[in-house]
Automatic annotation (TrEMBL):
Region spans: Disordered: 219-239
Lineage: Eukaryota, Fungi, Dikarya, Ascomycota, Pezizomycotina
Name of the featured protein: Alkylated DNA repair protein alkB 8 like
Signal peptide (UniProt feature, chain positions): none
MF terms in GO: demethylase activity; oxidoreductase activity
UniProt record, GO biological process: demethylation
Domain of life: Eukaryota
Domain Fe2OG dioxygenase: 82-184
Coiled coil location: none
PANTHER family assigned to the protein according to its UniProt record, in alphabetical order: 2-OXOGLUTARATE AND FE-DEPENDENT OXYGENASE FAMILY PROTEIN, OXYGENASE-RELATED
SUPFAM superfamilies reported for this sequence: Clavaminate synthase-like (SSF51197)
């Protein structure tokens, strides 16, 4: 993997992590052999420990789920051990995810494997307002460390197209992603970022659950927007 020469630092990328044939076989499994939640918008399945969208840490109330047979060949090869948590997500066309950071104390490095359609991910620095767009191409795997992991948020905007450098627009299509997370030893982060780090916030007396209220409101708005977009598409096709 090579670090991208951009800000934030700490974004590492490898293209063609798997072959197109392997990708096609995986998408067949995802679409025909897995049981997905019955709702619109972004869908998720969890393996290993279950990820909590309320705390951005581990859901302690859910039992450990063994990795299915198709997953081990997809694990990052640059780490000394397998991840503790893997999340498979499906993004319907136009669906996104609000800007966020995964809980600092819970997780160390993060990886993401993109499958299906390409998408643009936004990294934002809350301190300066700086923003960087990173194109996630099919079969590419990305690692986030350092500033990219701890001090910038990352997210995907809900929209029907992504702007291209040449001024054109790329239509959004269905996309799958695998997010890999490793538990942080000691469950304490010493980065000191009082806006994004839960360890620093706990030391200031900020309640853990309160930090995610804004995110939950954004996530609900994203889901409603995706639902409205789907309804408009259906109505247009029926005309």
């Amino acid at each position: 993997m090579e670090e991208l020469p951009i800000q934030p630092s700490g974004i590492f990328m490898q293209q063609d992590f798997i072959t197109p044939e392997h990708e096609a076989a995986l998408l067949t499994i995802f679409q025909t052999q897995l049981t997905w939640p019955d709702r619109k918008g972004r869908l998720a399945l969890h393996y290993g420990h279950t990820f909590s969208y309320k705390t951005f840490g581990i859901d302690e109330a859910t039992a450990y789920i063994p990795f299915p047979a198709w997953l081990p060949p997809l694990l990052p090869r640059t780490e000394a051990r397998a991840p503790d948590q893997v999340c498979l997500q499906y993004y319907a066309p136009g669906t996104g995810i609000p800007p966020h950071v995964d809980t600092h104390s819970a997780f160390d490095q993060l990886y993401a494997l993109s499958l299906g359609a390409p998408v643009s991910m936004q990294f934002r620095d809350g301190a300066t307002g700086a923003r960087t767009d990173v194109d996630l191409l099919p079969r590419s795997i990305m690692a986030m460390r350092g500033d990219a992991r701890l001090h910038w948020t990352h997210g995907i905007r809900s929209r029907k197209t992504d702007p291209l450098p040449d001024g054109g627009a790329r239509p959004r299509e269905g996309r799958w992603s695998l997010t890999y997370r490793w538990l942080r030893p000691g469950a304490v982060c010493e980065c000191g970022n009082e806006k994004l780090c839960d360890t620093a916030q706990r030391r200031l007396g900020i309640e853990k659950e309160y930090r995610w209220k804004d995110y939950e409101a954004q996530a609900k708005a994203e889901q409603e927007k995706a639902s409205d977009s789907s309804k408009q598409t259906i109505e247009k096709n029926e005309q």
